[in-house]
Write a structure and sequence with these properties.
The complex is a heterodimer of chains A (199) and B (472). Chain A is built from eight helices and seven strands. Chain A is an alpha/beta fold and 199 residues long. In chain A, strand 5 and strand 6 form a beta hairpin. In chain B, strands 5-4-3-6-7 form a five-stranded parallel beta sheet, with helices on both faces. With 472 residues, chain B is of the alpha/beta class. Chain B is globular. The longest helix of chain B has 17 residues. Classes of the chains: A alpha/beta (199), B alpha/beta (472). Chains A and B meet through helix 4, helix 7 and helix 8 of A and helix 2, helix 3, helix 5, helix 10 and helix 11 of B.
């Protein structure tokens, strides 16, 4: 995973709440077996509407998405994060994220920063007043800056550290291989196994 | 201080305690796989040269993409076929047990695990699917994960996880006749909202929960994610043990006795404290249906489409306005007058044998409304076989319904079972999101009993609305 420190890019106001992962990428776009190429599925139903924000210049080139509360609810599909990243987003800001979406973002280097609802509202106004205005997201300082506007956002310490270091979770866990071996050795015999297959 | 059920199961799986602010490393007892969220995880293993650490704690099935017609023929949709073939290749290469289309144990992953007896109290269960919360009905800590986490579990049989908070959902009183566990969970979600459970493990408890069958409990835990909670749990009891006894992978002999002794300890201690608590009286509940485009936008069937102008919160008002526009509904319309085009009975929420029996009981000897198509999709091939052994397939066919093969089907419309733009459905599934069941499709979430009565009358209905007696 590529380390993340700061990012500056065009902010996109998405004035909707409860943007579930079926909206971020509908199920029919989940049939690929590769990890890339999901950008066409991003907000697929809404992108057929010419008035949708990503169909307007200069938002089309956006990389910082500012959305309403409960972003990423519903299905656990990590494809939602892949689609956002494949499109070019590096950061999503919202006043509340669904747990699984936030976890998936952290694994893939997409910053999911939690802003106060009034700061989301303020950012929306700025991004709509000056379409194409850039937003700077500083992960180390946990601040978002847009012109004279500045606000803190929340990302938990552990996720922030992993994002900044670009660390691979599996490598980190395998450093505890001895502890995993010891745990397995003590598991009771009544716990089920899938093999041999019984039915 | 005492511990809650969720905390007890968590504590029993900590491989390595995290420092303050860091996650614990948790052992995973059972990992369920399907074709949609696993290909990139297996590819990751291949690229890093890692094996599946515990194939014997892993099981896969084909469910999201599979057709429910012509299941003995190659899958017609080429991208779906590629995804299913990829799962077959990956399972063969990495030694993972797979139940493919045509196999008696194939079906929706959350129906298959319990019916094989693999889902047991006190386990940690994960799957790259948010409805993994279903397995919490057994007192397991079960939650959905993303594909990066699927790869992590395949490689290490563990997950780094930050501790959850706990919320008690206590349901007192008795459920009225005709009101089901689906109505309970829809009422819970309407009460706490789609974000109300975020960061929590929900524990459903109280007399109304204890009275439920295992299948009804699974329906409730299944939709915990729709309240924003990754997991929902119910303490195991005699009902749980009876369900498990004799199943293929249930413990036997001394192991059974040892297991029951441990399972019996998996109850929230009397002096344990939840971080939050919600209380509902079952006696106040009635059949519940959704009118909007998230599962929290629901009301009792006796209600009317709400007027957004009367919603105080600006965000919720805007959301309701958008939802009514998408759903093509007018404020004030009685919910019972909403006519549907399709009734879908199935999914990991309500595709089990009990669900099919309850529908059959309502529709037996009747005819569906002419204007409605009715799909009955069993949750697994085993459920289908059981239903056929009981003659339920004949009841559905005589009623005018379609009797299909097993899979996720119209719940998410990845296979050909989809709504067309503008088509309206009453669905026993779990999500009424825009386009969920097909682009432009409109979904009302309902219980199996409401689905059955709606299929007869053509408008959202409960069995109590069926006045005409069935001719002998």
């Amino acid at each position: 995973m590529e380390p993340f420190s700061t990012h500056t890019g065009v902010g996109v106001p998405l004035r909707r709440s409860n943007v579930d992962t079926d909206q971020i990428i509908p199920a029919v776009y989940l049939k690929r077996v590769a990890r890339t190429g999901f950008e066409d599925g991003l907000f697929a139903a809404w992108r057929s509407d010419p008035s949708f924000v990503l169909n307007q210049e200069p938002y089309r080139a956006g990389s910082v998405l500012v959305a309403g509360p409960d972003f990423g609810t519903g299905s656990s599909r990590e494809h939602a994060v892949w689609a956002l990243k494949d499109y070019g987003f590096r950061v999503v800001l919202s006043s509340r994220f669904a747990d699984i979406f936030r976890g998936n973002s952290g694994k893939q280097g997409l910053v999911a920063g939690q802003l106060a609802p009034e700061d989301v509202e303020q950012l929306w106004k700025l991004l709509e007043q000056t379409p194409g205005v850039e937003v700077t997201v500083d992960l180390e300082a946990r601040t978002v800056v847009c012109g004279s506007f500045s606000a803190p956002f929340a990302v938990d310490d552990y996720t922030r550290w992993r994002l900044m270091e670009g660390l691979d979770d599996v490598d980190m866990t395998l450093r505890s291989a001895d502890a995993i071996d010891a745990f397995e050795a003590a598991r009771p015999s009544y716990k089920p196994t899938t093999l041999p297959a019984l039915s | 201080m005492g511990r809650t059920l969720a905390e007890k199961v968590w504590d029993a799986h900590v491989v390595r305690q995290g420092a303050v602010g860091e996650p614990d490393l948790l052992y995973i007892d059972l990992h369920l796989l399907h074709e949609v969220t696993s290909p990139q995880a297996f590819e990751g293993l291949r690229l890093s040269g890692r094996p599946v650490r515990r194939p014997d704690l892993t099981i896969a099935t084909e469910d999201h993409n599979v057709p429910t017609l012509d299941v003995d023929k190659p899958i017609a949709d080429l991208t779906s076929r590629t995804q299913v073939d990829t799962l077959r290749r990956n399972c063969a290469e990495f030694g993972v047990r797979l139940h493919s289309l045509g196999d008696a144990e194939q079906g929706i992953v959350h129906v298959v695990g319990p019916q094989l007896g693999l889902t047991q109290p006190g386990l940690t269960v994960v799957c790259g699917d948010s409805h993994t919360s279903t397995h919490g009905a057994f007192g397991a800590l079960a939650f959905g994960i993303g594909t990066s986490e699927v790869e992590h579990v395949l490689a290490t049989q563990t997950l780094p996880l930050a501790p959850f908070k706990t919320m008690a959902i206590t349901v007192v009183g008795d459920l009225p006749v005709g009101t089901t566990s689906k109505d309970v969970i829809l009422a819970v979600i309407a009460k706490i909202g789609t974000g109300g459970g975020q960061g929590y493990v929900l524990e459903y408890r109280g007399p109304a929960i204890e009275a439920l069958s295992m299948e009804a409990r699974m329906t409730i835990c299944n939709m915990s994610i729709e309240a924003g909670a990754r997991a929902g749990m119910i303490a195991p009891d005699a009902t749980t043990f009876e369900y498990l006894r004799g199943r293929a992978h249930a413990p036997q002999g001394q192991d059974w006795d040892d297991a029951v002794a441990w399972w019996s300890s998996l109850r929230t201690d009397d002096d344990a404290v939840f971080d939050a608590e919600v209380v509902l009286d079952a006696a106040d509940l009635e059949p519940f249906v959704t009118w909007g485009t998230n599962p929290g936008q629901g009301l009792p069937l006796s209600g009317s489409v709400p007027d957004p102008a009367q919603i105080a919160d600006a965000g919720e008002r805007a959301s309701a306005e958008r939802a009514l526009e998408y759903m093509a509904l007018t404020p004030g319309t009685p919910l019972r007058e909403i006519a549907v085009d399709t009734v879908f009975i199935g999914s990991c929420t309500n595709g089990r044998i009990e669900d099919l029996r309850s529908v059959a009981e309502v529709v037996a000897g009747r005819q569906k409304a002419d204007s409605v198509r009715v799909l009955v999709v069993p949750g697994s091939a085993r459920v289908r076989l059981q239903a056929e052994a009981e003659g339920l397939d004949r009841v559905f066919l005589d009623f005018g319904a379609e009797w299909r093969g097993a899979g996720c089907s119209m719940c998410l419309g990845m296979n050909p079972d989809q709504l067309t733009p503008g088509e309206r459905a009453a669905s026993t599934s779990n999500r009424n999101f825009e386009g969920r069941q097909g682009k432009g499709g409109r979904t009302h979430l309902v219980s199996p009993l409401v689905a059955a009565a709606t299929a007869i009358r053509g408008t959202l209905s409960s069995p109590a609305d069926l006045v005409a007696p069935v001719p002998a």
